[in-house]
């Protein structure tokens, strides 16, 4: 009798993976509520559509690879990828953009390398960067808060009708990056994209994802090293290069912590156990690297928010970080970093 060839995670591990993924999905609920309250039903439509696309792509590729479809779909990893990707996309991104992003995330970010547990890059960020580079106009169309109704959302996402002029606005990170002459105080007063401390609406969303991240920390789904490393590095970098309210200011530490995808990245992206570093010291260095890169891209790069690029660049560095931060093996004085030929 031929036994089915099933790679890890096996039955017991799959159940644990399933529980972990369900808790991650639960932790995104505060952020989903905040985004829906601010920007309308576009977020929910994106979530449903991205989830359907992700499960479809996952099932198709598993069938082509002759792997048991039901077994792997039950671990909910494709669903988590879809949800994180949908939360990062603009709330009223057209249906085809979400389809392309999800297809690349599942196909090239995950299944190309063998599936769950073998991907060197964060799949959601792979899909996000592909559409960000390919369709910059659609990826920068963020609506003003409380502007779009449910019917308008459906019609716009699926191309049935266009939304009224003036429904979209530049984000606070966009406005700060293109600013050349106004002081921070003037920019804050004249631009509706700014809230009290960060981006209008982005403050509430970031605090909501922070709440979800604290829940995951309490459940010990990951250690504090990567998220705290990222947030601390971002805060320190923004403090070092903050020159007050001058026209060339890059924003205060509080502004950077409460704008863009900071908290989503810190607690839901850099904590990926597969594409990140493995040891506690390695996770801390990984998070610090992401935080530094996010600030560098925001302040001097070509994109207003650099979370996705920072994560993918540090994914490349994760094997090197693991090599130099390998913990000491029991019975050895120093960490074992490989073997010489002939040993």
Question: Which helices and strands appear, and what pairs or packs with what?
Answer:
Layout: H1 11-27, H2 29-39, H3 42-64, H4 69-73, H5 77-88, H6 95-107, H7 123-134, H8 136-139, E1 142-143, H9 150-157, E2 168-169, H10 172-178, H11 184-190, H12 202-218, H13 225-240, H14 253-257, H15 262-269, H16 280-300, H17 307-324
Antiparallel strand pairs: 1-2
Widest sheet: strand order? 1-2
Coarse morphology? globular
- Helical content stands at 55-70%
Q: In angstroms, what separates the terminal alpha carbons? A: 40 Å
**Count of alpha and pi helical runs:** 17
Q: Evaluate the radius of gyration.
A: 21 Å
Summed over residues and divided by their number, the pLDDT gives a mean of: 84
Note the beta-strand portion.
Answer: under 5%
Summing up helix and strand content along with how strands pair, one would put the structural category as mainly alpha
What order do the SSEs take from the amino end to the carboxyl end, as H and E? HHHHHHHHEHEHHHHHHHH
Please indicate the count of domains.
Answer: 2
Main β-sheet description:
2 strands, antiparallel
